[in-house]
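[job 4471] stage=fold_predict status=RUNNING
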Amino acid sequence: ALSIFLAVSGAAHAQYSDLRITEAMSSSGTGGTGDWFELTNYGLTVESLTGWTVDDSSFLFASSLALSGISSIAPGESVIFLDSAAGADIAAFRTFWGGIESIQIGYYSGSGIGLSASGDGLVVFDSGGTEQTPRVTFGTATTGSSFYYAYDADGNPVTSPNTDAIVSTVGVVTGQTSYTSANVL
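[job 4471] inference complete, writing structure tokens
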């Protein structure tokens, strides 16, 4: 029975890359920034993001938008993708959140994706349309709070984003980097 569990457990993990969506922001507040999400590499090797895309709660590759501005993500690294036309808002994002000069920030833009403050979801695809992260969802946002996701050994989300929204603060939250701004209401 244990060998069957381990085989099933390994198969569940193998369906995704070692990348996970670890945080999402859909309502940063008045004077805040656009929507964004954090992607973390839990693997032991560099992961190329060439041709990768993101979609919201429709979870459809055909509706997904290109992830731009970051070509790869190192083991243990967390990067941010901001909803920003051609990355125009990256400098303002860095200023607003502060203290994130060393963090890679990329972008996505186009019609069809807008993280709703009343609830939404995210998934990342490779260039061939295969889901590379488990799907994450969240309920109604609290202005100035992000949704944080933790994962089990099989790479499945273990947090309940509807109840585990956290206010982003400088430091480490359960091993993941989070961000802060005095401007958040």
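[job 4471] summary: The chain has a mean pLDDT of 79.
[job 4471] exit 0
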